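User: Can you help me understand a structure? I only have the sequence.
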Amino acid sequence: MLTAVTAAPFGSVCTRQYVGGTAVADALAAGFARAAIGLALFCASGIALALLVGRIRPTGPPTAAHYAAAAVGSHTVPTRPTVATTGPTNGTPA
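Assistant: Let's start by predicting it. Here is the structure, written out as tokens:
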């Protein structure tokens, strides 16, 4: 998604500058400048979001709702470590 956010202003500024009679190098520089501003704003919003999320503290031990929310955003369900049940030499069950 960020590629589109960066490419859209870059392309529109480059095209507008070039059609307006600006040299190719200056049009590219203007496009890169606008894309850099967009990336800087995106990064600043990410930093602000990280600071806001960092202020949230858990109030107690995890509940079933916490585990369900964690499972939705990940590919594994959080579990406790288990002891291996395979034999020491050939990998057959003990």
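Now, to help you interpret it: Residues 8 and 35 are 8 Å apart (CA to CA). The mean pLDDT is 80. Let me know which part you'd like to focus on.
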